[in-house]
Give the backbone structure.
Amino acid sequence: MYFYIYFLKSIKKTIYEPSVNYYRELNRRIKKKKSKHVPSNAIFSTSAPLLPDNTLNISGWNVRYDLKSAFIAEFRQDMDIAIKYVLNIYIYISI
């Protein structure tokens, strides 16, 4: 029994730091992509999330990237940041 507990703790100790670094870097890439990525056919309108050719408008892209960031913040167990992103999503959706 104690062997399993020790084994699980050693696995957690081994993979914890690399996984935190992975999600931190993933979040940086998402933020960078969010700040740079504006599709060429995007319309600067918040009225409809999908355009006639099934592409997202600016508000839709912001919801997409904020949702990804919220999930990553939850994976890192950073609930304050996750709540901030979810509130941003709610603001985008309620407009």
About this structure: The chain is about 75% helix and 0% strand.
